[in-house]
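fwd from M.: "can u put these together and see what the complex looks like"

so here's what she sent:
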Amino acid sequence: MVKYAIGDFFADGFFSPSATEGGNVGMIIVMEKNASEDQIRHVSERLQEEGFQVHLSKGVKKTIIGAIGERTPAVMESFEVLPGVEKIVPIIQPFKLASREFQEKSTSIKVGEAVVGNGSLQIIAGPCAVEGREKFLEAAHLVKEAGATMLRGGAFKPRTSPYSFQGLAKQGLEILAEARELTGLPIVTEIMDTRMVELVAEYADILQVGARNMQNFFLLKELGKIDKPVLLKRGPSATIEEWIMAAEYIMSSGNKKVIMCERGIRTFEKYTRNTLDLSAVPLIKQLTHLPVIVDPSHGTGKWKLVEPMALAAVAAGCDGLMVEVHQNPSEALSDGPQSLIPDNFKRLVLKINKISSVLKNDY
Amino acid sequence: MVKYAIGDFFADGFFSPSATEGGNVGMIIVMEKNASEDQIRHVSERLQEEGFQVHLSKGVKKTIIGAIGERTPAVMESFEVLPGVEKIVPIIQPFKLASREFQEKSTSIKVGEAVVGNGSLQIIAGPCAVEGREKFLEAAHLVKEAGATMLRGGAFKPRTSPYSFQGLAKQGLEILAEARELTGLPIVTEIMDTRMVELVAEYADILQVGARNMQNFFLLKELGKIDKPVLLKRGPSATIEEWIMAAEYIMSSGNKKVIMCERGIRTFEKYTRNTLDLSAVPLIKQLTHLPVIVDPSHGTGKWKLVEPMALAAVAAGCDGLMVEVHQNPSEALSDGPQSLIPDNFKRLVLKINKISSVLKNDY
Amino acid sequence: MVKYAIGDFFADGFFSPSATEGGNVGMIIVMEKNASEDQIRHVSERLQEEGFQVHLSKGVKKTIIGAIGERTPAVMESFEVLPGVEKIVPIIQPFKLASREFQEKSTSIKVGEAVVGNGSLQIIAGPCAVEGREKFLEAAHLVKEAGATMLRGGAFKPRTSPYSFQGLAKQGLEILAEARELTGLPIVTEIMDTRMVELVAEYADILQVGARNMQNFFLLKELGKIDKPVLLKRGPSATIEEWIMAAEYIMSSGNKKVIMCERGIRTFEKYTRNTLDLSAVPLIKQLTHLPVIVDPSHGTGKWKLVEPMALAAVAAGCDGLMVEVHQNPSEALSDGPQSLIPDNFKRLVLKINKISSVLKNDY
Amino acid sequence: MVKYAIGDFFADGFFSPSATEGGNVGMIIVMEKNASEDQIRHVSERLQEEGFQVHLSKGVKKTIIGAIGERTPAVMESFEVLPGVEKIVPIIQPFKLASREFQEKSTSIKVGEAVVGNGSLQIIAGPCAVEGREKFLEAAHLVKEAGATMLRGGAFKPRTSPYSFQGLAKQGLEILAEARELTGLPIVTEIMDTRMVELVAEYADILQVGARNMQNFFLLKELGKIDKPVLLKRGPSATIEEWIMAAEYIMSSGNKKVIMCERGIRTFEKYTRNTLDLSAVPLIKQLTHLPVIVDPSHGTGKWKLVEPMALAAVAAGCDGLMVEVHQNPSEALSDGPQSLIPDNFKRLVLKINKISSVLKNDY
């Protein structure tokens, strides 16, 4: 009835860093109907050699072996190919540092004067990309006036050649820094390559990992070594568990300041660019102690859906929103169709705050 | 760049009833790079024979033919196999009666004293199945007290033999009717077989089409002939367009009282039973004039997610909720893990109403 | 790590018929980290009351309870909501009659002179729909000549009104019967409504359940009462397990002659109408004793992909193919773009037979 | 009817490099039902400003504007937000250098003595990871003897710290080189980080881009600058178009030697780790001129499915296979459950060659 192998979660050589630190890892081994006594004994012995506590349950038709220990997924997986084994069922979640069980108190993260988590609601807004100094500074002022609490903007573009982009990137980062100076808003910007972590960390208040990089483990490891918060977007085809495991990767490398960001998953639906999975909000809160924000702009791909989905995200209990705002979406160099104009954004902030305050009274 | 055939939308012989009634159906025919003049002429001539207005655009490398007319998808599809044709791109949405373009004013549906749509928020609650008279009447009282405005409960079970279930079903329907009598709440119950439409319509105030029957066209046609509202659940793998087409099916068969119900779609995510697609709420409101409600119980499969997702659905602008409530979920014969207990439900209703009233002031 | 509830497999009140007949059903109950001794005892006692053998494993951080017995999924699911329970992990597959464990020998099904299974390769071909007598008889002759071993054609159309379609249907069925008479080929045709099972069974050699009806349990039950083979198409969003469960439904209702048919699943890919899941072929053979055929026409939606995917299906070990062939696809009333012309089909049959014979020598 | 925005294909700032070089890019702009004359004129004028040829089609209810030109997707997308525009439908595929239209002749790539493409069938085999010198050399001999034509093995592990892994990696690469020396087989190994392209290119005959890195644009760009073939795995949630676009990225950066590798996509099915999409094989051959190989090991995650799916892939027309083979899968440090033992692999090679030769005679 349970059909996926441990390998699903550790595919392609991925390795849960915290699992090695031990803990209460367990699994159930279901033996084949015709498994011989010898095969059952062999599995039990190997389990004991690996330090597992073993519990045998012989049914009329099948034998089931329970094993509890502190071994890595790779060790557990190795039992799947022993003779007589039908399947393995892992029974403990593979993340640890991120889990609510490990730390009951919700994490809140200070960013300048602002706090992500702890009941506050951060509204991160701005254009998709930093397209030019004046335009961006104007946008920064507009979103601040409308009620944004942080500023977003992409400084890096994959389009540019690796020889030129660092210069360009740096210029983008400097514009971002200038905008922070002028507005007082912390800045959030994307990091896409291991070679630039140091540079971006120098400027940004929060480093964003894009959806496509969620399982770029080299990048996650580098981000584990800096002292800035990381906003980790969910990959478009990542399960919630894989997403938490990516957070675990950063945390186990040394950086505990991880902010989760739901931005839609890929489904068969075609009206929307992605299907925004709002159930991720309460799930992240139940499974982990990390703050979670929602990006309804990428999550839907259509500006007409941004307001209702932003309100829904707040009602679902998120710690913040990330919204694309552009003075003139029809001239935006990227992602115009999902950007709000400042007036719509202002209206949205008002509604968000109303819902947010009603809910606070409620809980 | 556009990659699916018309056939995607009319797969397996499905036929849009309203499309036959004409309208402004159109398509673009992209010719192959090496299409000959003869092939282009042949396609143009056939288009004209079929009554299309034809617009030729010859580019340097490709010829594109625009065609506007009033033909059925089957006719459009037939062009895809003509020599020299690379692909067809349909450009008008295939539904008509359900569309906001056809009827600008939102539909509201009277059910007893209640109204679905028109700014009201219906809360349909009750256990998954009618499991017995006394238990159900008790549940009915409890959900009414907690604030439900309609009562739900399944009278039919596929599990029973076809020789016995009609009797059982009738008994279930009678219990539902008794509960309505006692509480004054309209009743919503599922219809699963063409042979029982008449019987169920006699008792129920709203007939529910389950997710698995969304494309049971024989059933939809039968429901098009009755004078009771139909609550149409979205299929777990149905696109929003296919779902609207199913509504169109009922409507074109004569019954305009269709209520859409989002209940989650099937994705790769495993923590939740389904992924509740709340973007469907604003999309249904933008694309159609029909009311739309949300079922967070089936939509998540976990009672701990019901409250946040119900609140999110309200914030997204839905016209109602359908929530499973059970006095004792651990004894429920089906879907226990997704049922709220009455106390939790009561608390939920309070929160729903707060959000709902804040939003009303806002809009 | 294991993330779905039993309810996933028995959603919406679905009930595994064979599970009631007992067998070696089992589950693991993972208790919450902070579960009290009382909660653990309470769960254990209820398990014993329900007749389960209980095995307790207390780890440093968590307690895990193994339970083996002969109870239905509904009973197992009821434990998920007991206080202190984190989750339930079912560990035995929910199907029985269809399973390879229940019957080791592969099922082969006689249809007229032909045999489905047992190493033979059936090639079921014909147009999507019976569009007229002469045309269909011509098609029948053409596909027979080209090497088809069975004839397919749809007699029912959802488009027609319920008052007229039975007549039309009957005429279609009579044309099918005439084609069988003339060619000697057994006929396969779709059944879509419980009200017509008797009529169709009178004419058809194999009754086909369409993908959208795979979980129409009332229809499955009716098909369980007839003495004709049923070709069960996989639903576009059905897991392999749900598909086998649908077969189980027919089998437990009395009809053991079930032929599985893979026809593509719904994914995010857009070039193809569906993603043909050929891994279903060896999986059905490993998990069940039923024959399995493949429909590359619906499975891809593009005639240019039919040949390579048909050959791949044969190489993967299927027991037959179902291929749409039409004299003039551009005039076909449905599914033209995925139909082969007779010449292409003839070439395909030659290749199929070559691969098939090479593989036979190999195994 | 057409439901996705141009942005779907160029999401998150992705930019089609070849589109800038012009070509016959086109789109259809569907105006809203109530679009004013002014709005229509405004759109037309902006199109002309951007250099598009404009074709107006005024229907009874809607106006449709055809536009043909040589502009980038970003320019096309910018029209979606103009007043009165309902949607944009792009009508030309976004890739160019990779397309069969651009280069009719199939690309074949020399690797040592071997050729990928041009009718040959490459069998790339070996363990998932290089786990040690002796073991790997033994594996290399075993797979060569069994009929492999190339050798695979991963030298990099995300698990190790960035300070130590380069040394380890280098050692792994040296073992690979030694194995090539001894067996004469070209070696294929994965590259995961921009910082290591130079080093890996020094050793490997083919550099493999893993599924998770398919849209790591910085890495693709670096690979565009080397003179070694790149094996590009399809991302688990990448459409075929996105996958081809990733190839386009490498090609437009200067490296034309790209080999596509289908390795399964993520779907709702749970028995298999991924759903191997074999229709990708004929589609890549129809849409592009690049060779395509298949990885049935990762594509299924179960060694029992590797043989049937490998045979199916060959029958579907692939140019090669990539198969995991391990002397002792139960001791493999990663991906044991999907590895064949050498004996099974040997048997597989025999069958592959039989099918391959039958098909050659056929075509």
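replying to her w this: The mean pLDDT of chain A is 83.
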